[in-house]
Amino acid sequence: MTVPMTLPAENGFVLACAAVPGEESLAARFVFTIDAIPPDFAPELSVQDMGDVTMVDPLFDIPDIADIQVLFGPPDDTDCTDRAAYRPYVRQSFFIEAADLPVRFCAVGFDMAGNESPVSDRIVD
Q: Which superkingdom, per the lineage (predicted)?
């Protein structure tokens, strides 16, 4: 059975109960968190020069930046607006050889509800 329900448009909580009529004491209770507001900041990048390589790590900021997707490559050929080119950040540092620098590094974050952050766009020298 489907029961229509109006959810809040802003952040908040919803408590829903499902019970067989006459057995309300055995009701199943569900709490939903509503988060419709995206983060207002992009993921920050940690960039560390290690001599022959540069280590780049996008930084999480839970709960606002709980997931990250990245894109990087030559500055003139890397388009941070090309969302189809991004790939999931799997929490492993990126090591970029000095000979491959500079690179454009793009990162977009998502909060725990999946709302998208602005994109960070940085040239790593």
A: Bacteria
Q: Is the peptide bond before 63 cis (omega within 30 degrees of 0)?
A: yes
Residue partners of 38: CB distance under 8 A and separation at least 6? 111, 115, 116, 117
pLDDT tens-place string over residues 28-63:
999 988 898 999 999 999 999 999 999 999 999 999
29 DSSP β-pair partners: 17
pLDDT given at position 2: 79
Can you read off the two tokens belonging to residue 76? 């003139």
What whole-number distance in Å separates Cα of residue 59 and Cα of residue 79?
21
Set out the domains of the chain in order of their start, with CATH numbers. Answer: 45-124 (2.60.40)
